[in-house]
């Protein structure tokens, strides 16, 4: 496991190096995009695929897949997924979404939209720091907030677990894609944590 985590840390640092100044350009689906990230993501799981809004559209809203607290001696996973809702020039009627891998637990919230035809430009994560104690229930990411271009904030369901880690850099344009770091479902083999970390792409 140590060797596996070492490789994942290297991958994460590579992403963060590009995120710090949005200097890491990537061609995704015919779109030039830069990466924004945060520094407090959870350590478990692997980076899944990247999914982009359709060309010419941007993320104007977001929804959250969250497992409610399961009670004493049960395995909690908290935040399981993030779904971007894409629009053309603020028109929210198109029904386009972008979603990287999501965990299997919980339910999706209703979409929360930036007002005034705004779009997403940054985010922050609420994450439980690894406790690494016998019989402790790790949950990793527990909630998220997204900044809109007009200064409004879209916040996920409140959680008593974890700490907010600070905002990502802001896109000079708009968020147009997403990539998640997901811990797979382990069943009875190991504690499940689901969503651990998040990257967004700016176009």
TrEMBL record:
<feature type="signal peptide">
    <location>
        <begin position="1"/>
        <end position="19"/>
    </location>
</feature>
<dbReference type="InterPro" id="IPR036706">
    <property type="entry name" value="VOMI_sf"/>
</dbReference>
<dbReference type="InterPro" id="IPR005515">
    <property type="entry name" value="VOMI"/>
</dbReference>
<dbReference type="Pfam" id="PF03762">
    <property type="entry name" value="VOMI"/>
</dbReference>
<dbReference type="GO" id="GO:0005615">
    <property type="term" value="C:extracellular space"/>
</dbReference>
<protein>
    <submittedName>
        <fullName>VMO1 protein</fullName>
    </submittedName>
</protein>
<keyword id="KW-0732">Signal</keyword>
